[in-house]
Amino acid sequence: MSFASNDQIIAALTNGQTWRADYTKNMNPTLAAVANEGHLLARGAGNPPSDALFDVGANLTFIPVLDTTASAGSIQHGGDVQSTGVTKHLINGQAVTSAATVVPATMILVDIVGYYRTTTVTTTTAQATTNTLGLTDTFTAAVTDICTYTSTANKPSNLLTGTRVRLTTTTTLPAPLATATDYFVIRIDNSTFRLATSYANAIAGTQIDITNTGTGTHTITWLLPRYTNGAGLNAMIFNPAATALGAATPSLSLGYTNSVGVASRVTPAVLPVGKTAAANSIILYTGATSAGKYNFAVPRQGGDAGYAQIDTIQNSTSYVSGSYTTALYKELYRVPVTTLGVPGERNAMYEIPSLPRIYDGAALYWVLLSGVATPVNSTFSGFVDFIWG
Amino acid sequence: MTKIIGIAQLVDNELEGRTNTYSFRKNPSQVTTQGIWFDLALSPGNPVPKYWFGTPLAATAINQSGDGGLYHGASVFPGKKYLRKTTVTVNNVVTALPMNLTLCDYIMYYPLIDEGTTDEQFMTNTTTLPRYTDGKGVQVMAILVAAGLGGQSFFINYTNSEGVAGRISQTVLENTATSLGVVKTSALNANANTCLFIPLQSGDSGVRSIESVTMLGPDVGLFSLVLVKPLANTQIVGIDAPVEKDYLLESGILPEIFPDAFLNFLCIPRGALNGTGILIDMKVVWTT
User: Fold this and answer.
1) pTM here?
2) What CA–CA distances, in Å, run from A31 to A34, A120, A375, B66?
3) DSSP state, B154?
4) Neighbours of B234 (CB within 10 A)
5) ipTM
6) In the predicted model, is pLDDT for residue A306 greater than 80?
């Protein structure tokens, strides 16, 4: 359950159902930022430590990220809570810097759900990605059409209505379910779900009529560890390595399936333009002022509210050398930092919607959007408060 | 089309991902003057400047897809898109503050009105308003694009939002500011007709097209007439605090952003803006 009143929040705080994550992170460890550059602070030293994750993994393959992923370097938030039937939320946060000449800046807290690494940066055509449904848990099915998770290793309580899944079994799936077939989840609660034959049916609540329980052990597989239907997810492309990318300014584009299951969606005609020799941690198309410098989020096709998966990634001209990473993330929270030594703080309880949800396994990172030139290793500190109940 | 009709619907749209926040940084190079409105569309930064040049006196449509402006995402039609929140921060130049800002949808412009002639200058209106097509709430401002001496007066002949042609604006007085991008009709003095938007004929609330401009005395330089729909207002008061405005909570209304709208801010600084970095976050929410 979530919170329905201030009294419930006070009770949760009194009961110790809270976690404060203090952090101190450095910006890009190798090169100063120019104004309007975005940087993923995961790359900088500090507490939590710099990641050793985003430049690891097979080329063009989706890799999920959790707070427990080795070398993720994400901000911890107090562990999983959903197994006890409650939800976790961000209630308050703060960001401050005393480093000279770095303000104003904006700090954005994001939950990175996964990434695609691109090492074939000299290829200029659209490169297909691999989206193996790699998250699995087991379930049983009943003739009431209700399925129940029987394992929780990959946090199936995060599965949302409209999520595309596939099924496998050691023997025989419940009729009429089949392997190698896309189904869509109708979420009931943290432990149970139904299945639909299409996204539209899932949203409409039209479930598949299950006529027997099958035999053997059944497994459900899906792609995204959180925001599993993709609603609200954005994409950003950054340099995940100490080595700068080569000298080039390619246009960067994504082909993707949106959060309502429509494929062949594309980013706009005027594409984000990557920075030449982009250094460690920089979000490639931020910084210098010219056309194609949108924001740190890659623009989506009109009307789309998220990414279910990225299907192709393209740099229009060769980036010559290096690698870049395309991360799928959910923006949770923004804190402007305007004055040296004066913290920016935001109480999320009084926002509408209030109290951003923190899902089990959330991998939290700060993105820095620089308002002025920002020296190498400029430090940003603060805390984030979480509450559950 | 679905409008947002309540807080529950707004929250549902946001929780279902139909929201985004876009960030910008404008860094004016122009030396502005206290009390003179300035068009940040002409300032360097991100997005890149848009200069109001083109075929002289010819109505020219302004769209995000062709002209830029503050990027707010692609069209969500048949849904509707709304401005939810803005956050504005400036860096360490205090002379320009406090400063009011007005967010506008720039719809159409008439480039390069010649201040050197007192002949009536007739517009070419083969293009019509691409948004707010009836002109309701559409205002006119004169943006300096080639410096003159100022001090002259002019008026415009226009068709109002009811479709009535031959309407005559109030006669407005030009200021003597010379930075490109200043609003020529704004000034500090007590003249009632020195303001951001050109005052219309009594009873009119909007402009559908402009038919002509008449200078009442010769000057040098050029200005362009830009038709805009004011959407929202905010203010930045100091460098030590961002100004965040939630249009739901503080205005009780969510300004609608039309498909392909070209958005930008007008500002009225207290002094010179050159060298000031202005950071803007703009949150939008949309329906299906």
Assistant:
1) 0.91
2) 9, 24, 7, 34
3) E
4) 21
5) 0.85
6) yes
